[in-house]
Specification:
alpha/beta, Rossmann fold, 4-stranded parallel sheet, 13 helices, about 15% strand
């Protein structure tokens, strides 16, 4: 095992059990595909591959990362598995673990992923060099449950237009929560709660829109949305609201089963499905759009993301039945790709007014 001074454990997927990383004495650090770096990932991976994976790899190749004690990868799709392989090639000294992720939340899948989470916990203890008790896991879960609650309160301020800085600031908060310790983010959110709010700052000009997709981590993109007349009333991204949700701790049940059940019951990513309800993701998008009184829906999909592209027709059909217009735009983890869509976004908003 490589000796390191860093306390950061890197991760790239919303299905990562962040509370376990905290319980082991480390800090979860999400490697976000934001910034500008030379396009080098094509040296190792196919060019027609998920931009998220390529941009994360570009960061690693350009040494644009803090010192990491280790990396956890989730085998959520083939592209993520390829990233794990490439990572071992370019950073052979890193501590790395790859966790297999089921595609459903059936009982057998929850049990399987609980085993993967247990293996991850054992690995973290090995990296730490000391055995940490289950009580520490419970304490960290309680802490992340508190963080999730504070984020929900902040999201409600966004829906009502009561958060100074609007949706760009909300995304900055999400990014902070996924790259800093939970304690620091909780303190920051409490400071926001205590700040005086001037009603004159209330954002009322934009048209309420629900935005969904795989990921959209750059706050500047939300500035572009707002400049185009969008009021982001709600969102569903793995770099946003989908990353943080509470875990119910049942003391009579195995702690890893609790965590597994909650993670697999997250709001659905397109790579997951319910055998009993094939249109689950469409129903979820529709319900969330209604909950935030959205007049329209914008889907932001990464190029070459086949799971999301395959599910767009059923989502569009579900929204059409309810008379909710939808706009689909594609991106590649750069602000430029969204900037090219600005005219389409503005035209969509004019249609909703």
């Amino acid at each position: 095992m490589k000796e390191k001074n860093s306390q950061l454990i890197g991760f790239t997927c919303a299905y990562t059990p962040m509370a376990l990383i905290d319980a082991a004495g480390f800090t979860p650090y999400r490697i976000l595909p934001t910034g500008e770096w030379p396009d080098q990932a094509g040296r190792l991976l196919h060019d027609n591959l998920c931009p998220h994976i390529k941009r994360v790899l570009d960061r690693a190749l350009d040494n644009d990362l803090p010192d990491l004690f280790g990396m956890v990868f989730i085998n959520s799709c083939d592209a993520m598995r390829r990233l794990a392989d490439a990572w071992k090639s370019i950073r052979p000294g890193d501590n790395v673990i790859l966790m297999d992720l089921p595609a459903t939340a059936e009982k057998i899948d929850v049990s399987f992923y609980a085993g993967e989470i247990s293996r991850f916990w054992d690995t973290l203890n090995t990296w730490r060099g000391a055995k940490v008790g289950p009580e520490q896991i419970s304490e960290s879960i309680i802490k992340y449950n508190h963080l999730a609650l504070l984020l929900k309160d902040t999201e409600e301020k966004i829906r009502q237009g009561n958060l100074p800085g609007g949706s760009p600031r909300m995304q900055e908060i999400y990014n902070r929560a996924s790259t800093e310790s939970a304690d620091r983010t909780i303190a920051y959110l409490k400071d926001i709660e205590e700040q005086d709010y001037d009603p004159a700052d209330k954002a009322t000009d934009g048209v309420p829109v629900f935005i969904f997709g795989n990921m959209l981590p750059d706050p500047d993109v939300y500035t572009l949305f707002e400049d185009s007349g969008v009021h982001v009333a709600g969102n569903d991204f793995c770099t946003g609201s989908r990353l943080f949700s509470s875990v119910e701790v049942d003391e009579e049940q195995d702690i890893f089963l609790n965590i597994s059940h909650r993670i697999l019951s997250h709001p659905p990513c397109a790579r997951t499905f319910k055998p009993s309800s094939p249109a689950w993701i469409a129903e979820d998008v529709l319900a969330k759009a209604k909950a935030c009184d959205a007049k329209g829906v914008i889907g932001h999909i990464m190029k070459f993301c086949d799971p999301y592209l395959a599910r767009i027709p059923m989502i569009r059909k579900a929204l059409q039945k309810e008379g909710i217009p939808m706009l689909i735009i594609e991106g590649d983890c750069t602000t430029r790709s969204i900037g090219q869509q600005k005219t389409r976004i503005e035209a969509f908003i004019e249609m909703l007014r």
